[in-house]
Request: fold
Amino acid sequence: MVSSDTLLSQEQYIAALHRDGAATIAAASHSLDAEVPSCPGWDMHRLIGHIGRVYCSVREHVVRRASEVVPAEEIPKPPQGEAVLAWYEEALENVATALKDIAPDEPVWSWAGDPYQNGAFYHRRMAHETLIHRWDAENAVGETQPLDDDLAADNIDELLQVVLPFTIARWDRPIPEGTLHLHRIGGEGEWTASPEGNSISVSLEHSKGDAAVRGSASDLALFIWERRSIDDLELEVFGTREIAEQWAALSR
Reply:
């Protein structure tokens, strides 16, 4: 069963970072003015600038082995115009190099807090940041490719167990009143997300939810990140569809 205790390896995450990072820049090279429908209000330039600045931020934290957040004013900002493409590529290479040099158990500050203040958090997070935004960039130019299925399964796990508890606490987002069960086909992976006070809990066993969604890990990840609707994916839905959509809306 996929869980936060059975991650992909450091090498697999960095390989995914390189692969999806290269695909992102290939898509962006088509048009920096293209609208990015899955990131409302953004164009390709802003998307590439955002990802590149995240890379720069992570590199600074990792290289310094920071014990607290590095101030935003110390993180390079993206240049305007076509120069952002070369800037992004350099940022990608720099963060990949930094991630190769930090062991999974080495301490370093992260926004996720304990127990995620270590190199392993950033190995995983950068692979998934790039995976989803690679799809955003490709979607903007009409050339989307599916997500790697095993990486997508791990992506779902990270979203439910790491990202959403943080975002719910930080931005006081409304928690759905019902439970959501996600069932991966074509490989291991089941998740049941439940409201729990002011946060959520996630179990990894087979169970019934108020809403259940079944499909490939790629399609489940695109749904739960609210990149595509249920109707646009090869997904089976059982129970209350509205509850499933409320869970997906939490990722915004």
About this structure: The first strand starts at residue 180 and ends at 184. The longest helix spans residues 149-171. Residues 149-249 form a domain with the Nonspecific Lipid-transfer Protein; Chain A fold (CATH 3.30.1050.10).
